[in-house]
Amino acid sequence: MSPNPKKIVIVGGGFAGVNLAKKLSDHDAFDVVLVDKNNYNFFPPLIYQVATGYLETSNISYPFRKLFRGVKNFSFRLGELEEVLPDQKKLVLSTGEISYDYLVFATGCITNYFGMEGVEKNSIPMKTISDALQLKNTLLERLEQASRETDPEVRKKLLTVVVAGGGPTGVEISGMFAEMKRTIVAKDYPELAGSNGDIYLVDGLKALLTPMSEKSQKYAYDTLSKNGVQIRLNAMVKDFTDDTVHFANGDTIQTKNLIWAAGVTAIVFKGIPESSYGRGKRMTVDAYNKVLGMEDVYAIGDTCIQLTDKNFPQGHPQVAQVAIQQGDLLGKNMIKGVKNEELKPFAYHDKGSMAIIGKNKAVADLPKPKLFFSGFIALMMWLFIHLLSLVNYRNRIRTLYNWAVAYLTNDQSLRMIVRPATKKTLH
Question: H-helix or E-strand containing 105?
Fold first, then answer.
């Protein structure tokens, strides 16, 4: 270790934060501290498969301390950021205070309810491991309720699911629900035979998968419709109260289950000046991910907006590859900085977009050369990329095993209702 290493505090252990920490691992010019409110990294693109019982929580998550075990210049601090004191170069956490030489925000984003209190209170988000477990427990409990419900109207509300948001998460979880309804629910719940619960996918825009090609959008729409998903476009949710989803055009859907995958927003932190925030509450950064208007403070991934990339003048999409590439480059630039070498500005290399829609059904867009894939080959591409993106070999092997079982049997054995014990249940 260098006699005077620079203390780099990274807040957030997602794609961006972990990749930055890895890039600076065992570099004696730096003392790296990772701060996170959870003690594990997790893989958000596969949250919905935990929620539907196709993967275990441990398939897509891994403890930070084990991930960085043996890295001499790394330490972990469990805690939630409460305030930044830039004049003192100090952070106030829920678990104490910590000083820094350089501060890096890699805090990702949170669910955006667009000010709708009913939606925030009554819907189920899809951003965290806790959200996924809540969704799985809730839907399984609703199935159990429906299996003993005698009123057909109440049973229909218990079995009807509305997914709000036509991006990859909304499309993928709608496709998964359609598969489950066809292959699993009928077998596990024979008493529900003939029940008429529906699956709706709704979005305020005119197409599904709007960032992707028109071919992908049409394939997703046609495939989901063929699998029984009712799609409503140009349908903006305005409220969710009394088991009713209300739309801006006056339409309604009766359901007890609204899954909210319709938007995200970055987090505003006390101590960061308002002038440093841009669209979507994202911190505005320069070409080297330094937060504008601040000294020795950086932001990477979903929490920042960078307007210096000529190919993305309105800012980069909030996707994993941007976070991974920014974390990697910031680490390289920090190493260049201590060597007094010229820094490299960030330019996003778009590797394409993909979404899985059902068994043997997926879409993939590759930008260079501009190619479109669908069906089984796109599914294999999706599986390969997502396996490689998991944090270590253990996660990849266990995930591949669970996928293979689900693919070959059209089933999975992970549909247990498990809730933390309360004082009433303890003996």
Answer: strand 102-105
0.85 cut: is pTM over it? yes
**Inter-helix orientation angle 393-409/376-389, to 10°:** 150
What is d(CA 50, CA 48) in angstroms, rounded to the nearest whole number? Answer: 5
Tens-place pLDDT, residues 65-109: 999 999 999 999 999 999 999 999 999 999 999 999 999 999 999
Mapping DSSP onto H, E and C, the string for 11-40 reads ECCCHHHHHHHHHCCCCCCEEEEEEECCCE
**Cα–Cα distance between 272 and 282 in angstroms, integer?**
11
Q: Which residues are paired to 305 by β-bridges?
A: 284
The topology under which CATH files domain 117-264+352-409 is: FAD/NAD(P)-binding domain (3.50.50)
- What is the set of active-site residues? 172
Per-residue pLDDT tens over the stretch 215-245: 999 999 999 999 999 999 999 999 999 999 9
Fold designation for 6-109+266-338: FAD/NAD(P)-binding domain (3.50.50)
Residue environment code for 340-353, b if the CB has 16+ CB neighbours within 10 A, otherwise e: eeeeeebebebebb
H runs (alpha helix) in 339-424: 376-389, 393-409
